[in-house]
Design goal:
The complex is a heterodimer of chains A (about 230) and B (about 600). Chain A has two domains: about 100 residues, Roll (Ubiquitin-like (UB roll)), CATH 3.10.20; about 130 residues, Alpha-helical ferredoxin (Fumarate Reductase Iron-sulfur Protein, Chain B, domain 2, Orthogonal Bundle), CATH 1.10.1060.10. In chain A, about 30% of the residues lie in helices and about 15% in strands. Chain A contains eight helices and seven strands; from the N terminus they run ββαβββββααααααα. In chain A, a hairpin with a 2-residue loop joins strand 3 and strand 4. In chain A, helix 2 packs parallel to helix 5 and helix 5 crosses helix 8. The longest helix of chain A is centred in the C-terminal third of the chain and has 16 residues. Chain A is elongated. Chain B has 16 helices and 22 strands. In chain B, the strands form six sheets. In chain B, strands 1, 2, 6, 7, 8, 9, 16 and 17 form an eight-stranded mixed β-sheet that branches. In chain B, strands 11-14-13-12 form a four-stranded antiparallel β-sheet, covered by helices on one side. In chain B, helix 13 packs antiparallel against helix 14 and helix 14 runs antiparallel to helix 15. Chain B is globular. The mean pLDDT of chain B is about 95. The chains are: A alpha+beta (about 230), B alpha/beta (about 600). The interface between A and B is large, with 56 and 57 residues.
């Protein structure tokens, strides 16, 4: 199987280039990460992140034949040859497929992604009905891989002003959590022409999310709550 | 960079590892206004806690009657009486409070109709000291580890913890008197080295599942903290006890949570028989993990395995219905669809035991302080050093860990270590002077990999190590097999001395990181196979065909392995709990 992989080591390379690789031993059921690990045995300088190998740690987000995804849960069988692998778009490249995620993490920190309870805490759990808990499904599972945000044109155009789908999904996760008592502050903080409202429902985020989550819906939910509040 | 110019930073507390144990400790310390640094070789939410599925045990009694004393009994029995009963009492008593705290930190636990935390049955759990099945495992669907790790990271953002993300810890720094003074680390992004001086250092680096070829563990689980302790002259305890999880996806190793059996799933062999009825008539599929793994292994060995190669058994879930599976086990459903093209709501899952958990580790007391034998004292405190979680051995898991007790362990003892550090810092106001020899040693060990020229590759040696461990230190063991394993690891350690990496660049050099990880694995492999060769009995996860029985007269003691000369020592099990009567060893039947 043939691969073309983005290579760039700023220490030695003047500019990025695509390097071709061939993998002989492709077995059924193999994922792209399995292939990259085998290619790394051929060429140990090839840089990419990976850890859990099963799509839960979120380390190996990359751009695969033009679409963002996790290498570890992308089957080789569905990929057109040569498989073009590039780093996720619009983040600074540290080396090869490894991007600097800090701008993405900063967006996450900016939405104050932690449960805030102002009342004195009980000695036992805060109660939450199964229905209220269900509202968090589709949001809490985010693995912060960055696939959605780096595929979003609104993020490409305004990376420092628009918070991006992943961070906004987190914002919604706490706004919709029946236990959280900072809803007002959270909504006020997002009431700005860029942070939230630059989402133009292009829905790339929904298409690429490897966990099948729907950031666009979460963003719309926040917008709806804001509108309701302003009435 | 020359060694004199390496920058230095000073902290009250240094935490190495940002999984659940490290982050729980960091949060406690940051909230107490200690100056704390967390060093992690991956961004915190990539740590392996994220992969824990089924949940954490605590006697909340939300579903069935329960109390911490029953939990304690089950844990002692599960440990095959090798667990220290003072630490186990401490953990089981603390469990409910620790779960409620996690809930307050934001963990989206699944809920019961009355709004309380959902709990499910797990293996080895009982009511009333061995009676009816209990339901003790608090769960967020089958993504409990993810929910816990992310909530802890989020709370640390609030508490403004200092993170050194994607920094690799090379070695502990210590002086001649044995005081631990911090660690020598480098920034993986830039290759720049950093000396972190700390009044206290907490190792929370997780387990070493990468010792084996087929494992549920992430690629990062290379026993780094354990190996650092070994190189600092400290022992590893009970390393012969390595847990093989009964339900890994056959041939691939992905974990299928014990919660799948907790929700009512069961194992069948090629004849369609519920095989666990034969091995654990009462608890059946919810017997302890060591028991279920041996059962599957035996079924396959005796020719009752499934598939064309008869090399696995099946886990049946389809009778639970798609609603229960989607609500309680959505993660493993997705994993099966992704990796097997099988929906467990319709078809059974091919299963085989898979390397999962390191019961042994760096010996600590129940305050997380690292302890080591000095002259006639078996447990002398190592000044300034703490360990918690899978890299540590308190020992609450003894010879076999119960499902649902690992997340509990990391949170209880991460928190306990932090509390002890907070007290310690009240008395210790200044940093001790740095030991420059120790810095030089760490520096040289790292720069050994700058050598160029011919030499074996790290990839080749790593493959051979995993193979050697799988072949010679698996579920069933004999002296002959283990001796082969010792020899194989010894030879690999020798060959490692001449290994070379081909990439010497500074920026995000994954080849260098992998070389250092393999060195760590080699040391931990030797500790594991050597300790296993010495224990002439069968207990918990350590099953010797040549010594099939448990031998409480000779072997109710902890193994201590030292790297220097592969030396072994032993110390007694702490059978006296804190406040209740001791549970004396009994035959262990499920």
């Amino acid at each position: 199987m043939r691969f073309k992989i983005y290579r760039y080591n700023p220490e030695t390379d003047k500019e990025p280039y695509m390097k071709e690789y061939v993998l002989q031993d492709v077995r059924p059921g193999m994922m792209l990460l399995d292939a990259l690990l085998l290619l790394k045995e051929q060429d140990s300088t090839l840089g990419f992140r990976c850890s859990c190998r099963e799509g839960v740690c979120g380390s190996d987000g990359m751009n695969i034949n033009g679409t963002n995804g996790l290498a570890c849960i992308t089957p080789l069988s569905g990929l057109k040859e040569p498989v073009e692998v590039r780093p996720m778009p619009r983040l600074p490249v540290i080396r090869d497929l490894i991007v600097d995620m800090e701008p993405f993490y900063k967006q996450y920190r900016d939405v104050k992604p932690y449960l805030t309870v102002k009342d004195p805490l009980p000695e036992v759990e805060l109660k939450q009905s199964p229905e209220d808990r269900e509202k968090l499904d589709g949001m809490y599972e985010c693995i912060m891989c960055g696939c959605c945000t780096t595929s979003c044109p609104s993020f490409w155009w305004n990376p420092d002003k628009f918070l991006g789908p992943a961070a906004l999904l987190q914002a919604a996760r706490f706004i919709l959590d029946s236990r959280d008592q900072a809803t007002e502050e959270r909504l006020d903080a997002l009431d700005d022409p860029f942070k939230l409202f630059r989402c133009h429902t292009i829905m790339n985020c929904v298409q690429v999310c490897p966990k099948g989550l729907n950031p666009t819906k979460a963003i719309n939910d926040i917008k709806k709550i804001m509108v309701k509040k302003s009435l | 960079m020359s060694i004199q110019n390496i920058p230095r930073r000073r902290f009250d507390a240094l935490i190495i590892g940002a999984g659940g144990g490290g982050l729980r400790a960091a949060l406690q310390l940051a909230e107490a206004d200690a100056n704390v640094a967390v060093v992690s070789k991956v961004f915190p939410t990539r740590s392996h806690t994220v992969a824990a599925q089924g949940g954490m045990n605590a006697a909340l009694a939300n579903v069935l009657p329960d109390n911490w004393h029953w939990h304690m009994f089950d844990t002692v029995k599960g440990s095959d009486y090798l667990g220290d009963q003072d630490a186990i009492e401490y953990m089981c008593r603390a469990a409910p409070k620790v779960v409620y705290e996690m809930e307050h930190f934001g963990v989206p636990f699944s809920r019961l109709d009355n709004g309380k935390i959902y709990q499910r049955p797990f293996g080895g759990q009982s009511q009333n000291f061995g009676g009816e099945q209990a339901a003790r495992t608090c769960a967020a669907a089958d993504r409990t580890g993810h929910a816990i790790l992310h909530s802890l990271y989020q709370q640390n953002i609030r508490a403004k913890t200092n993170f050194f993300d994607e920094y690799f810890a090379v070695d502990l720094l210590k002086d001649d008197e044995g005081n631990v003074l911090g660690a020598f680390v480098f920034n993986i992004h830039t290759g720049e080295e950093l000396i972190i001086e700390a009044k206290t250092t907490l190792l929370a680096t997780g387990g070493a599942g990468q010792l084996y070829r087929t494992t549920t563990n992430a690629l990062i689980n290379t026993g780094d903290g354990m190996a650092m302790a070994l190189r600092a002259g400290l022992p590893l305890q009970d390393m012969e006890f390595f847990q093989f999880h009964p339900t890994g996806i056959a041939g691939r190793g992905m974990l299928i949570t014990e919660g799948a059996r907790g929700e009512g799933g069961y194992l069948v062999n090629a004849k369609g028989e519920r095989l666990m009825e034969r091995y654990a008539p009462k608890a059946k599929d919810l017997a302890s993990r060591d028991v279920v793994s041996r059962a599957i292994y035996t079924e396959v060995k005796e020719g009752r395995g499934c598939g064309p190669e008869k090399d696995h058994v099946m886990l049946k879930l389809d009778h639970l219905g798609v609603d229960v599976i989607q609500k309680r086990l959505p993660g493993i459903r997705q994993t099966c669809i992704t990796f097997l093209g099988i929906d467990p709501a319709e078809h059974p899952i091919p299963i085989y035991p898979t390397a999962h958990y390191t019961m042994g580790g760096i010996p600590t007391d129940r305050y997380g302080r690292v302890v080591t034998p000095v002259k006639d004292t078996p447990e002398e405190v190592v000044n300034g050093l703490y360990a918690a979680g899978e890299c540590a051995c308190v020992s609450v898991h003894g010879a076999n860990r119960l499902g649902g007790n690992s997340i509990l362990d990391i949170l209880v003892f991460g928190r306990a270590a932090a509390n002890h550090i907070i007290d310690y810092l009240k008395d210790v106001r200044y940093h001790k002077p740095m030991d420059e020899n120790s810095v030089t040693q760490a520096y040289e060990r790292l720069h050994r990999w700058d050598r160029t020229g011919e030499g074996e590759s790290v990839e080749q040696l790593r493959k051979e190590l995993k193979r050697a461990m799988e072949d010679n230190c698996g579920v069933f063991r004999t002296q002959e097999i283990l001796d082969n394993g010792i020899k194989a690891v010894q030879q690999l350690q020798e060959r490692m001395k001449d290994a070379r990496i081909r990439d010497h660049s500074a920026l995000f050099n994954t080849a260098r990181v992998e070389a250092l990880e393999l060195e760590n694995l080699m040391d931990v492999a030797m500790a594991t196979v050597y300790s296993a060769g010495a224990r002439h009995e069968s207990r918990g996860a350590h099953s010797r065909i040549d010594f099939p029985d448990r031998d409480d007269m000779q072997w109710m003691k902890h193994t201590l392995f030292f790297k220097e000369g592969n030396k072994l020592d032993f110390k007694p099990v702490r059978t006296k709990p804190l406040s209740v009567a001791s549970f004396p060893p009994k035959a262990r039947v499920y």
